[in-house]
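ARCHIVE CARD
CATEGORY: sequence design from structure
SOURCE FIELD: tokenized fold
FIELD CONTENT:
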């Protein structure tokens, strides 16, 4: 039952792809490239945010470490 439905859906999908005009194919390709670029940009922003967080934590640790050293030295 499930396999039959999947085969039917796959056949419909393939049939739909064959029925596309060249213009529709170009538009679909552009849309896919645009979505890929958006995804890459979101990942880049996420990476930058993580890097900024890392730098902030590292600076805080340096401050704490230097404060502890001052207290031990005093």
């Amino acid at each position: 039952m499930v396999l039959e439905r999947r085969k039917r859906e796959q056949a419909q999908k393939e049939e739909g792809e064959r029925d596309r005009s060249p213009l529709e194919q170009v538009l679909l390709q552009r849309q896919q490239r645009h979505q890929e670029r958006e995804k890459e940009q979101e990942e880049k922003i996420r990476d930058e945010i993580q890097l900024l967080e890392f730098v902030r934590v590292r600076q805080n640790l340096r401050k704490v470490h230097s404060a502890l050293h001052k207290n031990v030295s005093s």
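CARD ANNOTATION: Residues 48 and 54 are 10 Å apart (CA to CA). Residues 22-73 form the longest helix (52 residues).
SHELF: design records, drawer C
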